[in-house]
Design brief:
The protein is an alpha/beta fold. The chain has 16 helices and twelve strands. Strand 3, helix 8 (about 180-190) and strand 4 (about 195) form a beta-alpha-beta unit. Keywords: Hydrolase.
Length: about 475
């Protein structure tokens, strides 16, 4: 969303003493991050941290959703074609998801303790592409139908990349409309097109509603229903992409597909499902591109606290006592331990992909992240995939916070992030099986890069990770103490 100058002034004026102190400490090199950040970055991250931390006035979930899901309109260097995806007549997708959840359940929990079965609903989505002949202030062309906008979008593509993109926002905030500047940038950088889905938000629609929506979106790309503007998209041209919670949805969807493949009754074949009147195969995508993915609902690994000084997200030690003011959305009735899922589901592999042990057969994965609070959980998953024979491209940016590529667009690191993200998407579609693993840490202030071994990014064992996650789940009590994310 865009803020007016008066609104920004009203927001920042009370923070003048804090801003002055932060600037002074940075100038005198008294800040622990002054050697890594410029003054603009120091001010941006520290102000965000204060706005999100325990001293900020809590806002209800309903108010936060209302503020962050407004459609800002369509303008600038972007083509947007809005589409609706109808509900399949068959119930096969729902049942396949519910079966996988039951099969992957670990422990004595019953299905009804893990989740409530969501209905299938029509999906809204957007095709996004780069609009070459526009300026940043150009309005959307008048008189174009959605189909005509899609056709204009396709004419400007230069590659076969189709990015199925899931937005971030902790599973309860944001909307594809707010991501148009980002998806337009990714469309330009990849030369392809982006399909962004308006998946259902928690807490009104908890786990696994968003995963059902993600699975439906993927099948819609592969097998368009009647009236869809696009032709069938081959799986080897589709890349799952997402940031933060959208990265979690990407990896949850991938783990669901891997489970369907593992349990396929026809050895060597693809799992199938009925979808809009046809029996169709469910292949794996070309790859998965992740930006600062959130993989652990319990927020339990060491970097959550240890790297908080580089992040604007407040750690659990600062947020465990924060309570959202009651509203129609939260607290839920009956009570639920977490915004996204039931307490019993917090360590289920489809709710927290970090809990998934088996990633054999996964397509190549790309990780772009900062030296941030979520670093350890990303490192565990990347390392796990490589040790099981998979391909991972790892790009870690020194001293950068969560989703820096979007939050700090002015930095060279943000430009590099987009370049690396797009390169992976193009490479995985064009080269496929020729991809090889690589790991690099991008150093601050133009100091270059250093190689790292993706197979040894972290010393935590799988057993230690599982133990930390289970302990983390115990710290969440009855939906009163809430873990917050961005």
């Amino acid at each position: 969303m865009e803020a007016s100058p008066s609104a920004m002034l009203k927001l920042l004026l009370p923070k003048t003493p804090f801003i002055f102190k932060t600037a002074l400490w940075h100038t005198l090199s008294l800040s622990p991050t002054s050697s890594k950040w410029d003054l603009r970055t120091e001010l941006t991250i520290k102000i965000l941290r204060q706005m999100l931390g325990p001293t900020a006035k809590p806002q209800s979930i309903t108010k936060q959703q209302r503020m962050t899901t407004r459609d800002p309109g369509i303008k600038g260097k972007v083509w947007v074609s809005k589409v609706k995806c109808p509900v399949p007549e068959e119930d096969d997708l729902r049942q396949a998801l519910f079966k996988a959840i039951a099969e992957m359940r670990d422990g004595g929990e019953k299905d009804e303790e893990i989740y409530t079965e969501p209905d299938a609903v029509p999906l809204e989505a957007e095709w996004t592409g780069y609009r070459t002949d526009a300026t940043d202030s150009s309005p959307e062309p008048a008189g174009f139908s959605e189909t005509q906008k899609y056709e204009a979008l396709i004419k400007e593509t230069t590659s076969k990349v189709t990015l199925l993109y899931f937005h971030g926002g902790a599973m309860y905030l944001l909307d594809p409309a707010t991501y148009r500047p980002i998806t337009s940038k990714l469309a330009k950088a990849t030369g392809g097109r982006v399909f962004s889905v308006r998946y259902r938000l928690a807490p009104q629609n908890p786990f696994p509603a968003a995963i059902l929506d993600a699975l439906t979106a993927y099948l819609t790309l592969l097998y368009p229903p009647a009236g869809a503007p696009h032709e069938p998209v081959p799986a080897h041209e589709i890349v799952f992409g997402g940031d933060s919670a959208g990265g979690m949805l990407c990896t949850s969807l991938l783990q669901l597909l891997l489970q369907l493949h593992r349990t396929n009754p026809t050895p060597g074949g693809l799992p199938t499902v009925k979808f809009h009147g046809r029996e169709v195969a469910i292949p794996l995508p070309a790859g998965v591109a992740l930006s600062s993915p959130w993989l652990d609902v319990t927020r339990s690994l060491p970097s959550i606290e240890a790297l908080a000084h580089y992040d604007y997200l407040p750690p659990p030690s600062e947020t465990l006592t924060i309570k959202f003011p009651p509203c129609a959305a939260w607290p839920s009735s009956p009570p639920r331990a977490d915004l996204y899922c039931e307490g019993a589901a917090m360590v289920h592999p489809l709710a927290s992909p970090l809990a998934a042990r088996d990633w054999r057969g996964a397509p190549p994965l790309f990780f772009s992240l900062g030296e941030e609070m979520l670093r350890d959980e990303d490192a565990v998953l990347a390392q796990r995939v490589v040790k099981q024979g998979g391909t991972v491209v790892w790009r870690e940016f020194e001293a950068m916070p969560h989703c820096f590529g979007m939050m700090l667009e002015y930095l060279p690191a943000a430009v590099t992030h987009v370049e690396e993200f797009a390169k992976f998407c193009r490479d995985v579609v064009e080269k496929g099986g020729e991809m090889v693993s690589s790991g690099e840490v991008v150093l601050v202030k133009g100091k270059g890069r250093k190689e790292v071994n993706v197979g040894s990014l972290i010393e935590l064992t799988d057993e230690e990770v599982e133990g930390l996650m289970r302990e983390g789940r115990k710290s969440v009590k009855g939906g009163i103490e809430v873990h917050t994310h961005s």
